[in-house]
Design a protein that fits this description.
Elements (H helix, E strand, L loop, with lengths): L1 H17 L8 H28 L4 H55 L7 H7 L1
Length: about 130
């Protein structure tokens, strides 16, 4: 257990040496929030456009409702893209940190399983 805690502290120190920005205060969280707002706003525009277009027989007003509907669709698509980008960035950052940690642990296990240098195995490997 102590070895695991030591490895975690070493990993934190290595991440601090990389001078990466803190994801908790980053742009990704803002993008997720903006994406949700865009999705809700786009849906609101679409519903409003439906009521506008069905509340009149005036073709000019119905065409205006079509413009509002297309604007709502655009806002929803952009909001969805921002949401996916922010969510994926958070997930991939966590995944990359986990991958680095697991590879370091695997390298440590591999190094521990190899025989120490200078005990005769090097000469045997050099001959082949």
């Amino acid at each position: 257990m102590n070895d695991n805690t030591q490895r975690i502290e070493q990993f934190r120190a290595e991440v601090a040496d990389m001078r990466l920005r803190d994801p908790a205060t980053g742009l990704d969280r803002l993008l997720v929030k903006l994406g949700v707002v865009g999705l809700v706003t786009g849906l609101g525009f679409g519903v409003a456009a439906w009521f506008i277009s069905h509340g009149t027989r005036n073709p000019l007003q119905q065409r205006d409702a079509l413009v509002v509907a297309v604007l709502g669709l655009t806002i929803a698509v952009v909001g969805g893209a921002l949401f996916v980008k922010g969510a994926m960035a958070q997930f991939l950052r966590f995944w990359m940190a986990r991958l680095c940690y697991e590879q370091q642990a695997q390298a440590d296990r591999l190094a521990a399983s190899l025989p120490p240098p200078g005990n005769g195995h090097d000469e045997h490997l050099a001959r082949h």
